[in-house]
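Reopening this one. Same input as before:
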Amino acid sequence: MKFAFSTLGVPGLPLSEVLALATAHGYHGVELRAHPEEPVHPGLGPAERAETAAAFRAAGVEVLGLAGYARVAAPGADEPVLTEIGRLLQLAHDLGAPFVRVFPGGGDQPAAEADATAVRRLSAAAGQAAALGVRILLETHDSHRTGAAASRVLGAVGQPQVGALWDVMHSWLGGEQPSGTYRALAPYLGYVQVKDIASADDTTPLPLGAGVLPLTECVDVLCRFGWDGWLCWEYEKRWYESAVPLPGLLGAGRAHLARLLSEAA
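Same output, byte for byte:
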């Protein structure tokens, strides 16, 4: 498996410093938070996009994906959501990123209604994704935090350009065991976001292995079924200012993931 980290853990850090961290600590890729607060977002012009792609190539680091904020099951008109997804897809294509992350965002709607909205929008966006060579990944999050919930939508979409991003915290908070999440998402899985927290009531990010999330079980399941994709450390520093800065944790975090893989093998 390949290792990446998300720029959610280093909010606002210049791209040159992000790439220096990745190369110094042996990470193969970076997930880019695609938000105007960050150096890389859909508002970049053609020259900036080309410079960003060239910087990644020069560093020998891959752009794993763009972590967007489109909410595909949210109430309201389809067009603004589809426009947002389209902008993310074009940016991913321009940067050579294979994936774009979207959220469910169904809120308090009945599950069937939220599912139908998400299926309609993801189906509509799938053609553009295919044309640009990018996959849209629905993250296990908020209204669809388990693999079972996400797979209801993905199975109904039924298009290879629309898949899943497994956030191990949210599926755990939803009461799902790693083996169950994997079985539900296996036909659709793009990559896996790992992290660690103190408890269900305290989701402040911790170093990998220092909390309660079942990372060992997750890696065991992935290895047992021969999955050979990306593990991306999403350290939510942007939302928890008091959390220990990520740069000093990256080396130990990579070592922890490598140890889990070795033990699973």
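So the earlier flakiness isn't reproducible anymore. For the record, Residues 37 and 213 are 29 Å apart (CA to CA).
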